[in-house]
What we know:
The chain is an alpha/beta fold. 34% of the residues lie in helices and 27% in strands. Keywords: Cytoplasm, Glycosyltransferase, Purine salvage, Transferase.
Amino acid sequence: MTTDDSVAQEQQQQQQATTTTATNLDSQDASGRKSTTATSTSSELAGVKVTITKSLRRFADFPIPGIDFVDIMPLFHDPVAHATLLRALQLQVSEMFPNDKPDIVVGLDARGFLFGPALALQLGAGFTAVRKKGKLPGPCITAEYIKEYGKDFFQMQEDGIEKGQKVLVVDDIIATGGSATAAGDLVKQLGGDLMGFLFILEIPGLKGRDKLDNVPVSILIEES
Ligand SMILES: O=P(O)(O)OC[C@H]1O[C@H](OP(=O)(O)OP(=O)(O)O)[C@H](O)[C@@H]1O
Ligand SMILES: Nc1ncnc2[nH]cnc12
């Protein structure tokens, strides 16, 4: 077999695997939510969590000395892992809110943008960005916050959320919880109904979720 043949064969196998995962996503209603009769079980979630965990990797002393950085980028490099992640997040939202759904998914700059819009589409919700200061045009509101490796500012456009809209905040990682707290404050300032927070994983030991009281907090991979 030539190199070209084996590359083509590998691509075909990967395409088949992706199609299989995508087919499993079909059991959902018109709004994009999974139907209760579909196969959304805890064991299915446990299986996809294993696949996702295998795609994570760590870098010591990044971006500054003393930080053990968890890199989520391989999840998006592999289309099967990517589809699995989206499936798992969709299931997680169904578990968080069995009889409800968000109007708006808010994703945090920048890694919350990698999956927030796709998840919003799956849920039949809109997407709004929380961005680092100076990136959004027009009238904005601002919040200063402290995260695991520094201080920063988040902004939202004033028309990013309509008063009373139900909002789910999503991000890749919760460490100290500073970023998520600031995002939740911005949502509430705009009159949004903050439903909860969803993360792919947490940095253990920093007690980030303790900052996020009064709303449901869901973390796909509890220990990393
Ligand atoms: O819980 P915390 O201590 O606030 O830390 C978590 C935040 O830190 C990272 O973002 P970062 O600010 O590094 O931005 P990036 O996504 O652009 O890399 C991560 O994506 C979270 O948003
Ligand atoms: N340890 C960490 N790894 C990756 N992203 C982070 N954001 C905050 N802390 C982090």
